[in-house]
Design goal:
Helix content: 25-40%
Largest sheet: 7 strands, antiparallel
Number of domains: 2
Oligomer: single chain
Structural class: alpha+beta
CATH architecture of the largest domain: Distorted Sandwich
Order of helices and strands: EEHHEEEEEEEEEE
Strand content: 25-35%
Number of strands: 12
C-alpha cells in the first residue's frame, strides 16, 4: 500500500519594490497549530477584557457603596453634633442650677449675703406669673399692669444703663457675687450707671401701653433660668 504524503502549502512573499520572490513550504499541521495558537490568544484576550470589565464594575459598585456609606456617616455625624450641643447646653444649665443652689446653701446663714443674690421678684404691683425660660433668648418675661414698678431683685451696683433698638432700655446690675441681673423695658430708667441699689429699688415705672417686661440672670457669665432661684413672694 502506497504511503500518503502529508499535505503541504506554499507561501509566496512578493516584495513591491523587488523582483526577489521568496517562497516557503509549510505543512497543514503547522498552519493548524498556528491558527489554534491565534485562537487561544484571542480567547485569552477576550477573557482578560471580560475579567477586567468585571473587576471595574465591581470596583465601581464598591465605590458607590462607599460613597453612600460616607453620606450616611456624614448625616449621622451632623445629628450627633446637634445632640452633643444640646446635651452640652443642658449640662451647662444643670451645672449653673447646682452651683446656684450650692451657693445659696452656703450663704443661708448670712442675711446680708442673701440680699445680694437676685432671688427676689423683679416687679411689684399687678404682674402675671413669669413665662418659662427661653433657651433662645436666655430670658423670662412678665405681663405687667399700669402703675406697677420694675424693681431690683437683689442688692448691687448699676454697671450699665443703655438704649437698645430691640428692647428700649437695658439696666444691668452687678450683685458682686458673680451674679448679674438684666432688666429690659421701653420706658425711661429711674436709675443711672454707678448707682448702688438694694432689693426693691425701682428701676422703671410700668406703662399701660408697654405691657411686657423681660428679665435675665447670669451666674459666672452663664445665663441661668431665673425661675430656679426666684422667690415669687419677693
Amino acid at each position: 500500500m502506497k504511503k500518503k504524503k502529508p499535505l503541504r502549502f506554499t507561501i509566496l512573499f512578493v516584495p513591491s519594490e523587488s523582483g526577489d520572490v521568496r517562497q516557503y513550504r509549510v505543512s497543514a499541521d503547522f498552519i493548524a497549530i498556528f491558527l489554534i495558537l491565534c485562537l487561544l490568544v484571542i480567547i485569552g484576550l477576550v477573557s482578560y477584557i471580560a475579567y477586567s470589565a468585571g473587576v471595574i464594575t465591581r470596583e465601581a459598585e464598591e465605590i458607590e457603596q462607599l460613597e453612600k456609606h460616607v453620606e450616611i456617616v456624614t448625616s449621622s455625624n451632623i445629628i450627633l453634633q446637634a445632640d452633643k450641643e444640646k446635651l452640652e447646653n443642658e449640662l451647662s444649665h444643670a451645672l449653673a442650677r447646682i452651683q446656684t443652689r450650692e451657693y445659696v446653701q452656703q450663704q443661708s446663714d448670712s442675711a446680708e449675703a442673701l440680699n445680694y443674690i437676685p432671688s427676689g421678684l423683679p416687679l411689684d404691683g399687678q404682674v402675671s406669673n413669669p413665662s418659662d425660660f427661653s433657651d433662645e433668648s436666655k430670658s423670662i418675661s412678665f405681663h405687667i399692669g399700669d402703675g406697677s414698678r420694675i424693681i431690683s431683685s437683689g442688692a448691687g451696683k448699676v454697671i450699665e444703663v443703655r438704649e437698645d433698638a430691640n428692647f428700649g432700655y437695658i439696666v444691668t446690675i452687678d450683685h458682686g457675687n458673680e451674679y448679674k441681673s438684666f432688666y429690659y423695658y421701653w420706658s425711661r430708667p429711674l436709675v443711672s450707671k454707678g448707682d448702688n441699689v438694694v432689693r426693691g429699688t425701682a428701676l422703671f415705672m410700668a406703662e399701660s401701653e408697654i405691657p411686657e417686661f423681660s428679665y435675665q440672670i447670669s451666674y459666672q457669665d452663664n445665663f441661668i433660668d431665673p425661675n430656679t432661684i426666684m422667690k415669687i413672694d419677693g
